[in-house]
Write a structure and sequence with these properties.
alpha/beta, DNA polymerase, domain 1, TIM Barrel, ten-stranded mixed β-sheet, two-stranded antiparallel ribbon, 33% helix, elongated
Length: 331
């Protein structure tokens, strides 16, 4: 719960208003797992809270470890299950969180999209992923790049961000949090109410090409998304990046690189080129490395900051586009 929601709880429990801050301290600073641990509340009030509420913490139900050190965890959530990934590296440890069980967006390269949509996660389901992975205390960054489209579940995601960054909550710097989207309709609220970083799942500069990969292009065209982004300041502390999976013979030509450079020439951004991680029964293939490097060089020569992202966790199906709980649901 956000601080505003905890104040409502305090009022219902006939506690003084400052008790909301006390409860928040127990939840997010002391990270308790039982209401009985709230020892600065009376036994009667703890009993009342225990009757009407629960902490909401739950441990992973399973895990898998990659040869490269990436870790994937499964959590029970929203009557189903979700996957969460911890990506350690030399100077950081990144948590990739999910925001939905499945996804409605049907991106053709994504296992989560192929799974279809089951349920939205609550803010508690999202925060629990951070608090309940074994590496919780050593995490340095959070990316909303797991299962689901964050801005198809805007209320829960925004509440989770409030808890993550609030001084009453977990106190994370917004500069350590990135939210990824294909450009869903909740993006405007995020840009206005949050200062966390933004990543846009792009994959093509041409609308027709993008529609073949990201069907949501028909509902909200990428040009409209970029026009919205240009209304906000990304020249200083806040960053926007564009994610571009490079597919063989689909979006890897020099002409498409030039088209992309033209589209983003006035946007202060970074472009992340991503190797495709094949999923079963897909007609798509990843572009060869030399083609990806050629694509990068074309963008770089036109003044864009562009990197090729290193793949992590592919051997445990934890890499970009590979998360899915469909098999676990049917097991």
């Amino acid at each position: 719960m956000t601080l505003a929601e905890l104040r409502d709880v305090a009022a219902k429990a006939e506690l003084p208003s400052y008790a909301a801050e006390q409860i928040a301290d127990w939840l997010y600073n002391k990270k308790i797992s039982s209401i009985e641990e709230m020892t600065n509340l009376s036994a009667a009030k703890r009993a009342w809270l225990g009757k009407h509420y629960e902490i909401g913490r739950s441990l992973p139900t399973s895990s898998a470890a990659s040869a490269d050190g990436t870790l994937k965890y499964t959590f029970s959530a929203a009557g189903s299950c979700i996957e969460t990934v911890v990506i350690p590296s030399k100077d950081r440890s990144t948590l990739c969180v999910s925001s939905q069980v499945g996804c409605k967006m049907s991106c053709v390269f994504c296992m989560t999209g192929r799974q279809g949509f089951t349920a939205n996660l609550s803010a508690a389901d999202i925060i629990n992923q951070l608090l309940s992975v074994p590496e919780s205390d050593s995490l340095t960054n959070i990316v909303f790049m797991g299962m689901g489209e964050p801005f198809d579940n805007t209320n829960a995601v925004m509440n989770a961000l409030d808890i993550l960054t609030g001084t009453y909550g977990l106190g994370w710097s917004p500069k350590r949090i990135t939210v990824s989207t294909i450009g869903a309709r909740g993006l405007k609220r995020f840009l206005s109410e949050s200062s966390c970083h933004l990543a846009v799942s792009l994959h093509a500069a041409n609308s027709n090409d993008r529609y073949s990969l990201v069907p949501y292009e028909k509902a909200v065209p990428i040009r409209q998304v970029i026009a919205l982004i240009n209304q906000y300041d990304f020249r200083h502390q806040r960053r926007v990046s564009f994610e571009y999976i490079v597919f063989k013979g689909v979006n890897d030509s020099p002409q498409q690189a030039i088209e992309l450079a033209t589209m983003l020439r006035n946007v202060p951004c970074r472009i992340n080129l991503i190797c495709y991680h094949p999923i079963p029964d897909s007609h798509l293939e990843g572009a060869e490395l030399h083609k990806i490097e050629q694509f990068r060089d074309i963008l770089s020569r036109r003044g864009l900051v562009c990197t090729i992202r290193t793949s992590r966790g592919e051997d445990i199906a934890a890499a970009c586009g590979m998360l899915s709980s469909a098999k676990k649901q049917s097991a």
